[in-house]
Design goal:
273 residues; alpha/beta; Rossmann fold; 11-stranded mixed sheet; 11 strands
Length: 273
């Protein structure tokens, strides 16, 4: 039996990321939760084996509430990945967080519903801790990588995760802003938390594409549209790639965090590794 290919760093993103790699290997992964969003592409970045998977599918065919997050994370873990980098598009809720900035988030607020968001469905009881859902070690490396390549980065921030596919109303956005939360997105939950349940390190890196419903003291700023978000993200893809390629070589081979301790008592038959 041919051994399954391995990687130790996973990245969720679009096909534009692995287009820059040589000798990409496509791997189809079966999981107990169905098919991932796409086959996983394995490549090498600065001597490190990296797995890439587009969370929305290769043609962006899965809207945020239809992404099979459990299959995506399980597929990564089954290939040996123990660190996951999750770049994502986000709207700003605060005037000081500008379009074009990066925010390495350290907290999320879940406003989604109906998503399959746990691997622990019985019979073993397990209540995972979520106080600090992101890996401080990996996130710190992401901040340093962004600073070193000269992209504006906020080292912390809270992302409020909305159900989608619609954007926020003005009242909702005003409420989120009043709580002091920095960014709004549709995919960080349950992606980040499922990584924690599997004991993986995870960092969420927001690229700010817009000001959500606008900036309250500047009526000239228009509410966000899908076309504007996609266009902005495409124009900034090179900056995202630069950040990822600066980050990967910095990741140490041995983890110096406690993320692995968050993994609970999954039945051995269901473990991805």
């Amino acid at each position: 039996m041919t051994p399954r290919p391995r990687a130790d760093i996973g990245i969720f993103g679009g096909s534009g990321f692995y287009a820059f790699l040589d000798d990409v290997e496509e791997v189809v992964v079966d999981t107990p939760y169905g098919a991932p969003s796409a086959p996983v592409h394995l490549g090498v970045v600065d001597g490190r084996r990296v797995a890439f998977l587009p969370r929305h599918g290769p043609a962006h065919e899965f809207p945020p509430h239809r992404v099979n997050y459990r299959a995506n994370l399980w597929a990564m873990s089954s290939l040996g990945v123990n660190r996951v980098v999750g770049p994502f598009a986000a709207g700003s809720l605060q005037p000081h967080v500008h379009p074009g900035d990066f925010v390495v988030v350290d907290q999320f607020v879940d406003r989604t519903w109906g998503r399959a968001d746990t691997f622990y469905e019985g019979p073993l009881p397990y209540h995972p801790t979520a106080a600090d859902p992101y890996c401080a070690e990996l996130s710190g490396l992401a901040v340093k990588a962004a600073s070193d390549i000269g992209v504006p980065v906020h080292p912390t921030g809270t992302v409020v995760v909305v159900q989608g596919p619609r954007f926020s109303t003005r009242a909702e956005s005003r409420w989120y802003r009043a709580q002091g939360w920095e960014v709004v997105n549709m995919t960080q939950y349950p992606e980040a938390f499922l990584a924690r349940e599997l004991g993986l390190c995870y960092t969420g890196i927001a690229l700010i594409t817009d000001y959500d419903t606008g900036v309250e003291d500047d009526p000239a700023v228009e509410p966000v549209t899908q076309e504007a978000v996609f266009s902005f993200f495409d124009r900034n893809l090179e900056r995202i790639r630069s950040l990822l390629f600066a980050l990967v070589p910095r990741v140490p081979h041995e983890r110096g965090c406690h993320c692995a301790d968050a993994r609970g008592p999954l039945p051995a038959v269901e473990r991805p590794d």
